[in-house]
Amino acid sequence: MKLKPFLTHEIGSLSKPSWRVKTIRGIPLGDKDIEEAINWGKLLEIEGRDKLLEILIKRRDFKKEEKEEIVYFSSLYATKLIEKTGIDLVYDGEQHRVEMYEYPIKRIKGFIFKGHVRSFDNKYYRKASFIGKPELKEFYHVKEFERISSFAKKPLKIPITGAYTLVDWSYNEYYLKDISPGENNIRKERKGGKSQFLRKMAREIIYPNLQALYQRGAKFLQIDEPAATTKRDEIPELVNTFKESIGDLKGNVFFSTHICFSKYSLLFPEIERLEGILNEVHFEYANRDTIELGVKEKKRKGYKILEKFKDNKFVVGLGVIDVHTNFIEPPELVRDRILYATKIIKDPERIFVAPDCGLRTRRWEIAFKKLRNMVEGKIMAEKEIGI
Amino acid sequence: MKILLPGIYPRSEKLVACTRDFERGRITLDELKKTRRDDVEKFYKLQNGFKYISTGLFEWQDLLRPFINIIHNSREGELLRFFETNTFCRIIESKNKPELMEGKIEDWIETYFFAEGYFKNDINLIIPFPFLYLFQDFSRGIPLKEISKIFIRLIGNIYKLKNKALFFLEPSFGWRKIKDEEKLEGRKFIERLKEKFNIPIFLYTFFFSIEEDMDFIFNLPFDGIGIDFYSNTTSKIMGKFPKDKSLLAGVINVYSTIIEDREKIRKVIRKLENYISIEKIYLIPSGPPEFLPRITMDQKVENLKGVYK
Q1: Do residues B287 and B43 lie in contact, with contact meaning Cβ atoms separated by under 8 Å?
Q2: Nearest C-alpha of chain B: how many angstroms from A172?
Q3: Nearest to A230, CA basis, from B81, B11, B191, B207
Q4: How far apart are CA B141 and CA B123, in angstroms?
Q5: Cβ atoms within 10 Å, residue A283
Q6: CA–CA distance, A354 with A118 (Å, rounded to integer)
Q7: Domain boundaries along the sequence of chain B
Q8: What distance in Å separates residue B175's CA from the closest CA in chain A?
Q9: How far apart are CA A14 and CA A155, in angstroms?
């Protein structure tokens, strides 16, 4: 698949509009929520938005089908927001999903939620135990893909949480039922149990989902693996998991992976075994960078790991927008980050431009401005290089 | 009952939700504190009969964060993965020479080590501290010697309160190579503490195999050492374990919600008795209890009490 240089895409999540969150949680809507739907509807020129407003005006006690309609509109709004920024590959910012772990786990037999554990600060996630053979209840991203395809005017990229992350974020209690403390080879046994779990999840959960999306026409699929570097000595396992998840779909779909807030150096050289299978490797960089302009190494200290991509064939997914701050990166800063990457990688066709991660922690106003400047910065970089 | 529960204990589902509600402005600080107090109270009851009581550390966001509120010029930095887990911890940054906020020490101790005043001074309490290497790996601009000085000063204040046991939490053994100069500093630190304060001091290792540092660890003047028996093999560790120290056996599996088989735990204890007298064996979680949801951890503790029946 021949793609244009500096192709732009988002990474996954966007925040959910208050009128969507409150409706699903059963909280009555206020004037502000309705105004938000009106204002964004006008700005994004949403067709049929009157229908949404007719539903929202009830403010409370929404029926099941009305809630479904509201989710439909939040998907439509978010997709149009992304399109309006000028980004090349679009998505709806996970408007159909709770979040990247709980949503898939609920749709796989063999898991049971146990309770909340801390992720960081006072943020917790609902952690599940794996207690039976994993079995898909349904292809869990197909409906979302078909729906967004029906109104997206640009190519669509669907993110899917990878097997390694789903396994690493769960308690493994099916393959590790009978261990005794202090027994011989206890670490080896724990690792063995995890390998079995990983293979099963890759082959029987992720691959069928990817295949179902491919069969329905998906051309761009992103495998999210935020847990990728959690355990130093499991990188070979991670790589095998990618191989098994993608299987014979390689070459038929453009596969990318998104990994963030990790020690990336641990992935090399092992990840290079995925050349020809995985097309793009996207990391978060802007979070580690300075916000000063310039293309010298000192100014672009967040992009050191790019050196590792010099001698392989991966497309570099370049995070140029920090998702954890409301600072709106000026287009000139985006331009310099791209130009610096071009200096290292040499080939603009091997660089795709994106935010560091999903923008779900930012308000839509902020996310919109950040993404619009990202596109503008890309255009400036193109001019500078003369492409 | 010879069970101890050092480390951050999991918050109840209610406290998790209330903390989120407080941060989003839906409830007041007093309402949050009331729920936190309920958590402390239930946890206290769970530990009825234990030699040392843990306060639960329900105010702590991670093992390092309280220290930002007692070290001048320090601030929260970026999130860093907590070893090989999916929990992240914030770096402590200090640009100038770190100094303690002297006037605040007593309040700080009351907040973080006495559950906002719930526990009184005379009670037998576990006082947890990150050990030097853990603190160093999650801080910037605070050299090992300075950390050591800060800790000694703080522990001086805690020591006055009597009936306390110090627990140093340290997963860095087995995670990275501890340099010789770091080992020297670690040894000096513990020796100084033992000289100055007559207080039981324990080292709590977890997550990794300690085999490579075993000789160093076992020769430090701790009163007891905690070992994660889901990351270490009994036969490889216990042959060298010093007979004069207590063993804190990490047998509550924090990597799984399956409730331990009591008969298996009894067997493990019998095996450990081949190396050390039963009086010196305490049962603890294999790592930080907060890696399990509250309801599960409570069930595991209740179940473990049955081992002694």
Answers
A1: no
A2: 7
A3: B81
A4: 36
A5: 28
A6: 29
A7: 13-308
A8: 10
A9: 18
Candidates 3.40.228.10, 3.40.50.300, 3.20.20.210, 3.30.450.20; correct CATH number of B13-308? 3.20.20.210
Looking only at the bridges linking them, the beta strands covering A123-136 and A108-120 are: antiparallel
Judged by CB atoms closer than 8 Å, whether chains meet at B89 and A120 is answered as yes
pLDDT tens by residue, B277-304: 999 999 999 999 999 999 999 999 999 9
Residues 6+ apart with CB under 8 A from A285: A302, A303, A305, A306, A318, A319, A320, A337, A356
Contact A162, A245 (CB under 8 A): yes
ipTM of the complex: 0.95
B79–A230 C-beta distance less than 8 A: no
Distance separating alpha carbons of residues A182 and A166, to the nearest angstrom: 27
Mean pLDDT to the nearest integer, B143-154: 94
Average pLDDT over residues B57-61: 96
Token output for A79: 């997709």
Report CA-CA distances (Å) from B3 to A237, A315, B98, B163.
37, 54, 37, 17
A129 → chain B, closest CA residue: B257
Listed in sequence order, the DSSP H helices in B5-131 are 13-23, 29-46, 105-113
Candidates A8, A20, A141, A7; CA nearest to A78 is A20
